[in-house]
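In this notebook, the sequence line spells out the residues, with the fold written below as integer tokens. This is how one looks.
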Amino acid sequence: MKNLNFPGLPRILVIDDEEGIRDGLRSLLQEEGLAVETAVNAEDGQRRLAQKSFDVILLDLNLPGEDGLSILASLRTGVPPADVIILTGYGTVANTVEAMRKGATDVIEKPFTQDRMLAVIRRCLEMRQLRNELVWAQDRVRDLTSTDLIGLSPALREVQNRIDQVAHAPDTTVLITGQSGTGKELVARCIHERSSRRHGPFIAVNCAALTENLLEAELFGYEAGAFTGANKEGKDGLFAAAAGGSLFLDEIGEMDKSLQAKLLRVLQERSYRKVGGVQDIPSDARIIASTNRDLRKEVDAGRFREDLFYRLHVMNIEVPPLVERPQDIPLLAHFFLDQFSRQMGKNLTGFTEEATETLCEYSWPGNIRELKNTIEHAAITCPSGMIDECHLPKFSGGTADGSDEIQRNILTLDSSDCSIRKLEGQLVSHVLEMTNWNISRAATMLGINRTTLYNKIRLYGLGQRPTRKNVGV
């Protein structure tokens, strides 16, 4: 179909005993660039389906011999199964319910318009295209190692490029910056695994988790009797443990200034002394540091040594927040869902369109860590099958700029129509425009749920939402 990026030529099978319907649909769909075959009854349709696969099947409900409902299930045996659209000249609620229960994608009553038919087929093909892309993405995720970054966004590709560049300089100090929860330690592990030091150890320490004295002893080790409670034989530190590999100093912005001076000496002299020791010990560990602070501001405020900052800032990798890489949200969500599905022994197959939309519209102030926790919550609450919106936790409704307040004095009441209905329609329309048709955020601001908001959009004829160009599945 026009403007449809579908792999190969979409194949349509029309099963209908009316020659006029078959010929009309063949002409209409061939003009749209689709490959069309027709069958006059259930037996003929099943024979054609046994010979080749089809993407969409248009199935008449009232066929001679076996009717459409009786063969519907057998038409959806392929991988992936075809989308079956029921054609009926006497649609009833019972028939519609039964058809949908047996797997029909949609029901179209005769006589139908060309626009209606094309719209339903286009929707089916677009959904198949998304499913194909999702299967590819899931296969790609399964092939990834534990130290690969998941995502295809330009922002993440830039991070991957920087990792590849610094991986070829195994002694260069690296500073990884970014918000909490963005995956800075994973970036550090990627640097280690892609460098010639990958056969050595990767040692990580959180500088914010230990007091100054404990952190110094952990990093450099100590001699026997160096302080009260010290091991009688002394102890090697993390610099010694990381020899030949990488030492990751997480949240280095929390390190005390006196310890910063000792770390600076290690970077300058490539050697260190144990606590209580007098002998210089060579250091053969690459230093990779990370922080969620702005170290330049910390230097200006006198909380971080300027000379250490420039020693660390040889190669800086800025890890983008999740809000700047919305294309990666569905891929990350499926990666985590696959993990939790296996851990919990559940058959969790994916996300509904509503759930995916909600995940993509949220701003994720907690970044990837928050997304992972959200998917774990959904995996726990969903018994099996698709994760729906009801399985997700209630989000606070945060936005990228943190502003969720409706601008005041923006509604003007027409003196010719002072009804509450008119005012409500203006309010809903304004909030939708204000949020760029972010349904989740608009519903939160209006104090209603998404279903109610969709109903009001239809009630007041507010049109369709703009296409979101930056989010893909």
